[in-house]
Amino acid sequence: MGMNVKTRHRLSLLIRMLVFVALSGILSLVMSTATSPWVITMTAIALSLAVSYLTFRERDTYYFVSFTCNGNQGRCYLRFHERVSLDEIEKKLTSLNSGHQTIVCWYERVGRYEYELNLSDVEHK
Fold this sequence. Notes:
Elements: H1 5-33, H2 37-56, E1 61-69, E2 72-80, H3 86-96, E3 102-110, H4 112-123
Antiparallel strand pairs: 1-2, 1-3
Helix pairs in contact: 1-2
């Protein structure tokens, strides 16, 4: 059995914090020992790009969706590799409902933590 969702979330936050502290330490070390403005500038640019990538990289996008299909209402969580339009969400739900036309009534983006927390609740019942 895998790790608890809360434990994974906390571990992920801890790892991101440690990476940020490590990159900041490297930058401080280079700034204090380098004498060439060229080295200082290139190091600062490289480290700021690394921090920006870790902070703002595109991650999976999670949605909580309320929909109707064949007169029945339903709700579910969906995961996509990027942000998608309402049409893409409806196409995905239609394919999951054996090709029956599915209309989204309401949807919202949710965080990975909420997505995993609710999926693990369903898996353990």
